[in-house]
């Protein structure tokens, strides 16, 4: 099983990025998918969730600025984030919850001028 996260690393404040999480080795459509992030010295926190049915939920810190989506045909989840702030700087992880539970490796996002 592999959850491969990818996306732009360095973004200026106010900018946008799209993260992708490509899954392999699982029946992707059976899994609720999540984005988490962890900043240095902080606990890992839930950013957004998309269920198998397509329902979404967001942390208050990103609500209105983030959109989570999934493409079951491509076994891929996405996170579009706009109006980025320095406090969005973190390692972003994908997490699959379903018949089993799987974490992906993280991808670093740095918001800085």
Query: What's the alpha carbon Rg, rounded to whole Å?
Result: 13 Å
Count of β-strands: 11
What order do the SSEs take from the amino end to the carboxyl end, as H and E?
Answer: EEEEEEEEEEE
Low-confidence stretches are none
Put simply, the count of helices is 0
The fraction of residues assigned to DSSP E strands is over 45%
Looking at the chains present, what oligomeric state does this protein adopt? single chain
Distance between the termini: 37 Å
Helix content: under 10%
Largest sheet: 7 strands, mixed
Shape: globular
Average pLDDT works out at 96
**SSE-based structural type:** mainly beta
Q: Can you describe this structure?
A:
With 113 residues, the chain is mainly beta. Helix content is 0%, strand content 52%. Strands 2, 4, 5, 6, 9, 10 and 11 form a 7-stranded mixed sheet that branches. A hairpin with a 3-residue loop joins β9 and β10 (101-103).
């Amino acid at each position: 099983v592999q959850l491969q996260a990818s996306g732009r690393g360095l973004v200026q404040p106010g900018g946008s990025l799209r993260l992708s999480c490509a899954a392999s080795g699982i029946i992707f459509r059976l899994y609720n998918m999540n984005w988490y992030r962890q900043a240095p010295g902080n606990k890992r926190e839930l950013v957004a969730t998309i269920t198998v049915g397509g329902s979404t939920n967001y942390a208050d810190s990103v609500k209105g600025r983030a959109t989570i989506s999934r493409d079951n045909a491509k076994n891929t989840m996405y996170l579009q984030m706009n109006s980025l702030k320095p406090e969005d700087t973190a390692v972003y992880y994908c997490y699959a919850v379903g018949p089993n539970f799987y974490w992906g490796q993280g991808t670093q996002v740095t918001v800085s001028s």
